Structures
1.
Amino acid sequence: VKGSFKIGTLFGIGVYLHFTFLLLLAFFAWAELQATGSVVAAAETLLFVGALFLCLVMHEYGHALTARRFGIKTKDITLLPIGGVARLERMPDKPWQELLVAIMGPMVNVVIAILIVGSLSLKYGFGEVAGSLWPLRSIDDSFWMDLARINILLILFNMLPAFPMDGGRVVRSLLAMVLPYERATAVAALLGKGMAVLFFLEALGLNAVPFIHGEHNILLGFIAVFVWIGAGSEARFAMLKSRLHSIPVSQAMVSNFRTLSPRDTVEWAGELAMSGLQHDFPVADEGRVVGMLFKSQLEAALARQEPYLRVSDVMVDQVPTVTSSDMLEDVMTAVIASGLPIVPVTSRGLLVGLLPIERLLTPPGPGSAAGVRPLGRSAEDRMI
Ligand SMILES: [Zn+2]
């Protein structure tokens, strides 16, 4: 995610912090300092946000390590002010696996809350601690009480039965055990949208949701928008996935194209680009893909006006390739995640075609292009 920097690696997964999270941290410390004039109180606030941050990271690891058990890698974990995001390579296909991956995040917070409430109960007695959780009543260890409370809030928020929250995935995976995947997603998305509407009415002060009262209006409005968008993109993704079902890459790829050699000059590549309709070129050495030269790099390289510049000097050399016999639904996530407009297609290790990303979004076949809206890159593989 842009604007994030790495703070460490745990279990082979990089953990990133978005800079706005630091701004938030600074703001809370400053607000506390303004309110109390006490540096100690400000430091305590920082400590609390730090502890919250740890809880969020552990929540994401709950998803990531469960996914790992099913052979799914996690690219990274990023902390944003709205919460953590784990970027999974893909979601598991089997409903019971998706159920476990989704539920193990909130379960981490359940464990944390139980541990805190349990240890405080040893000191104050369970009745006293439970009674202080709600309504807010302070006991001496207010730091730990607040941390328990915020973990409980995280559980409730995450288990809302709506995408992109974990609860939405739980509902979808349960439905997918008895319905086709696409149908299950549609029903779960509809449920999420219904909830978004209720939240929105509540945010307007109409008291549409029982037990919630008008204090957190702006927050509710924000959640409503978040849920509405999440429901839409999840439904589109499922639709696309089922549309790509059992179409091989060979049927969607472009097989009429020009190839560059890594030893070709950039000037020659420029001439090729001028003469034809092709803007992005695969670079191959004796038929084996060694890179891609995209329009933007070619233009930048031509602007340098160095006649002896070679294609190998300016090409992208780490490009993912797909195999012509792969099914589109299986390569879709990797291709979208690569962020490249086109990926090379190989057969027995040799370059045979190009797969432009548009072909995934509007696959060939009867009744395909109708109604497919572009897919947000963020839609599919993120666990909040
Ligand atoms: Zn989660």
2.
Amino acid sequence: VKVLVFVEFSGTSVKKGALELLSAVSGQSNDVVAVALGPGSKALAGPLAGWGVKKLLALESDKLSTYNPELFASVLAGALKAEAPDLVLANSSLMARDLFPRVAARVQAGIASDCTGLSFEGGQVVVRKPLFSGKCSARVMFQNCKTSMVLMRSNQLPVGSPKGDGRPEVVEISLAPADVKTVATGRSQGSSTKLDLTEANIIVSGGRGMKGPEHFGLLDSLAQPMGATVGASRAVVDAGWVPHSMQVGQTGKTVAPSLYFAVGISGAIQHLAGMSGSKVIVAINKDPEAPIFQKSTYGIVGDAFEVLPQLTSEIAALTKN
Ligand SMILES: Cc1cc2nc3c(=O)[nH]c(=O)nc-3n(C[C@H](O)[C@H](O)[C@H](O)COP(=O)(O)OP(=O)(O)OC[C@H]3O[C@@H](n4cnc5c(N)ncnc54)[C@H](O)[C@@H]3O)c2cc1C
């Protein structure tokens, strides 16, 4: 199977989600091509060494330093026409969810987004796609298309390790003139240096049980020694305690970290929709009947203001060694 993997990167490092995709397809007699767009893309040949990528299609242009849907779609559609892959894989990031439907329409590809499972059956790709906020899932196969596109949620596939040091051949692709109707004139970045919720391996989320924004520092203290990112329920976002970028759930971010702490969160279905794919869930709630306990791996019935400081000092002590 010829697979083209869209590699998102930050500076000189390849995002973990892209390594998950490469781990899923390399070493299975697949012919793997990676594509990366924007300044720094050529240099990814180094970090991609050993990940089974034969060829890296890169485009350095400054015009691609900020996501522009028209330019990105035009470049990718060109690359896809030239490479004619059977399968295109990308992470289900905000950018990819905007970009790939455009590309799919241009190259007449089939597309499945927000997938949580990926397998091959007799050379055919089969994906799992949650429906109705995760209440059930569909098994999806493609038909009547030469190219299938799959956007995978992060943290769903295991990351392997690089084998050997085989660097991909770098092929520069050109920026064909596109009919661009919008231009990004600036970019502002939030002050957070933490990983985005969708990429975090550990998340500590707080809900209305935290009583007020002034107490979110307790969550930061727990998160800090573990390198975790802090999230929130919608109730506290709506109350203006924290920004919407921190919201986990149906109308926020969908996350699937290895470890998820739900502190003072009741476990409403809309919250569960965004985090029930987490591998281990720890709930801290003073109400033993809170629905979150039905979904949690470990439950601590207690007052967050008593539990958090104890947990934080235990974890800080453990992570010191
Ligand atoms: C269309 C729609 C979309 C929605 N999308 C989302 C979404 O994306 N994300 C989301 O989160 N919600 C979403 N919601 C809202 C959702 O239904 C709930 O209202 C919300 O998740 C509740 O947030 P909470 O758990 O923080 O608050 P509550 O439900 O009020 O729960 C607070 C919890 O804190 C506990 N508690 C109180 N004090 C303490 C203490 N001292 N120590 C420990 N525990 C304590 C309580 O026992 C309680 O269980 C959506 C709703 C709708 C209708």
